């Protein structure tokens, strides 16, 4: 076959030595760059490929496949070389021919961590350095070296995830405290929904700007800013006076609580950016199954901790309002030192361009479509869950008349179960159904099924006498199973969504992509919160009919999310339901 330099001329190709463990005696070799296949040349122990549009390529990492599309090996990292033009023979490194030292540009997008360039403390777009093409123990690597390398690579993930989880506990708790305290003081569902308006509006704006901040200044800055603002929001709530409601100064109470919630809303989305993007930065693109599991775990566990926060907030509020707020301050303070000391300022920064605000609105097609679907998906949930449900559970005339701890326990149980189902969706739901890693068709299936639960509850509220006549046992027998069904279906949808956004995100702009996506999430929550407060308060002769119409609106939003998902351009993989049933080839 000759040597690599003879048959792989410099100037137009990438040449990489083949791992000794790979049998490359195959015909029809090809190299896959993203979704583009090009023929490959085999020159002794070297494979050479001509990348499409080499001069403009941002990411020349590729996989080598045989004629049957079977993966032989992959090079998840590329590294520019300032050496003379010609093939690079070191296994695991792929180098483009250099024009001159001044012309050389890095072929590796994504994470740049100057403090850990050699150890991959923050990973790369694919989560590795050129010398560590994958997680897992390398040949001739001692266990101590392996554990040290793994720790270095996952350190940002661990720190950000722990800070994110502690913050999330306070986020759920402060929402529960404000909501139940407002009910206790006599505010209506509509007035309480207004209190959360700026919380969600802040999420819309913050998610856009957080993406820009993350790309320019790194995830560490956004995380610490978010934690600081959460302290400010909780601190402001210490000044909320009960006398405002008793003395007829309801507007003053609403404005004050709304302003405090605005700070908490900004804090939530700044902090969430780090928790969502770091999974992309430590997981290689070609390991989508692993990425799905990592994203599902951190997202699901986050929601479980938010459920714990719901219960902590309700339980602590029973003791004392100020005591409850004090616990939240301590939790936020516990999260800050790790982020301040253990993270690099370069984590998550975009390397290749000076990001401008206009770039935030120039998202990839699939990111745009998924963002619209996310708007309707979360609007469907908050159309009945955030404000109407706890008010109905507390209502002693038309609803259940439960105490605050019981209401907090029900809402916490919903969120915790939602989080756990989300965490285990890849292993317990999608893998047995042969639907992992997820794609467009998987989301279509589960999004359509989501419409069933709110449709069932709408019929039971509006068309049967169970809730109108306040048959408590029958009410519990209908509402709680209906909530459980919605919880499971919504968790699977949310898990698939969280995976798809990091899958579709550009590694070099992952912070902006995720920020834009969660802007749509915040808009959906805002719409659901406001519409649900209005429907519950003004939607019928009693709150029973109001809640029933909330469920009708929830069905409409779930159906709209399903319709939008059809537009995704992600047809690979088809759709199966088990090993014997194929719905889409």
UniProtKB/TrEMBL annotation:
Annotated PANTHER family:
MAJOR FACILITATOR SUPERFAMILY DOMAIN, GENERAL SUBSTRATE TRANSPORTER, MAJOR FACILITATOR SUPERFAMILY MFS_1
The scientific name of the source species is Tetradesmus obliquus (Green alga)
- Basic and acidic residues bias locations: 128-141
- The membrane-spanning stretches of this chain are 157-183, 189-210, 222-240, 321-343, 364-385, 405-424, 444-468, 474-502, 514-538, 544-568
Key word Transmembrane present: yes
Q: Which InterPro entries match?
A: MFS_ArsJ, MFS_trans_sf
Query: Which keywords does UniProt give here?
Result: Membrane, Transmembrane, Transmembrane helix
Q: Extract the ranges annotated as region (Disordered).
A: 121-141
Q: Can you say what this protein is called? A: Major facilitator superfamily (MFS) profile domain-containing protein
């Amino acid at each position: 076959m000759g040597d690599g330099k003879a048959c792989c001329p410099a100037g137009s190709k990438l040449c990489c030595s083949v791992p000794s463990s790979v049998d490359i005696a195959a015909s029809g070799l090809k190299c896959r760059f993203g979704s583009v296949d090009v023929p490959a040349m085999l020159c002794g122990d070297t494979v050479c490929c001509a990348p499409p549009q080499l001069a403009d390529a941002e990411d020349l990492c590729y996989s080598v496949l045989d004629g049957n599309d079977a993966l032989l090996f992959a090079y998840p990292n590329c590294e520019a070389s300032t050496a003379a033009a010609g093939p690079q023979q070191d296994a695991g490194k792929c180098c483009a021919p250099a024009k001159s030292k001044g012309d050389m540009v890095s072929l590796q997008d994504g994470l740049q961590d100057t403090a850990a360039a050699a150890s991959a403390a923050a990973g790369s777009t694919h989560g590795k350095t050129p010398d560590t093409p994958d997680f897992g123990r390398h040949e001739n690597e001692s266990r101590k070296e392996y554990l040290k390398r793994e720790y270095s690579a996952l350190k940002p993930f661990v720190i950000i995830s722990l800070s994110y989880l502690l913050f999330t506990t306070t986020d759920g708790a402060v929402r529960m405290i404000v909501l139940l305290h407002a009910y206790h003081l006599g505010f209506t569902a509509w007035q309480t929904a207004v209190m959360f308006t700026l919380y969600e509006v802040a999420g819309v704006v913050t998610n856009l700007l957080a993406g820009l901040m993350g790309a320019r200044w790194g995830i560490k800055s956004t995380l610490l800013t978010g934690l600081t603002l959460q302290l400010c929001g909780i601190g402001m709530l210490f000044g909320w006076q009960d006398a405002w409601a008793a003395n007829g100064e309801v507007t003053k109470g609403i404005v004050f609580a709304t302003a405090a919630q605005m700070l908490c809303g900004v804090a939530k989305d700044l902090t969430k950016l780090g928790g969502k993007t770091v999974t992309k930065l430590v997981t290689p693109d070609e390991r989508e199954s692993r990425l799905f599991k990592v994203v599902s775990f951190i997202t699901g566990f986050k929601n479980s901790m938010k459920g714990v926060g719901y219960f902590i907030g309700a339980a602590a509020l029973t003791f004392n309002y100020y005591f409850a707020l004090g616990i939240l301050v301590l939790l936020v303070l516990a999260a800050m030192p790790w982020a301040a000391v253990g993270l690099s300022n370069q984590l998550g920064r975009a390397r290749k361009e000076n990001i401008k605000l206009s770039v935030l609105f120039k998202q990839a097609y699939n990111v745009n479509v998924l963002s619209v679907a996310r708007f309707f998906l979360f609007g469907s949930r908050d159309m009945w869950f955030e404000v109407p449900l706890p008010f109905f559970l507390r209502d002693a005339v038309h609803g259940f008349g439960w105490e605050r701890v019981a209401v907090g326990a029900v809402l916490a149980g919903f969120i915790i179960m939602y989080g756990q189902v989300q965490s285990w969706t890849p292993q317990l739901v999608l893998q047995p159904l042969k639907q992992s890693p997820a794609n467009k068709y998987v989301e279509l299936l589960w999004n359509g099924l989501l419409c069933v639960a709110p449709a069932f509850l709408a019929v039971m509220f509006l068309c049967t006498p169970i809730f109108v006549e306040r048959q408590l046992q029958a009410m519990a027998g209908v509402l709680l199973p209906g909530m459980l069904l919605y919880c499971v279906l919504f968790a699977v949808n949310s898990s698939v969504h969280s995976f798809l956004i990091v899958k579709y995100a550009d590694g070099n702009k992952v912070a902006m992509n995720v920020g834009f996506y969660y802007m749509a999430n915040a808009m959906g929550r805002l719409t659901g919160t406001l519409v649900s407060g209005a429907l519950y308060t003004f939607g019928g002769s009693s709150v029973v009919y109001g809640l029933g119409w909330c469920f009708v609106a929830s069905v409409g939003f779930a159906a709209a999310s399903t319709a939008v998902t059809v537009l995704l351009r992600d047809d690979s993989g088809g759709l199966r339901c088990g090993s014997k049933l194929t719905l889409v080839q």
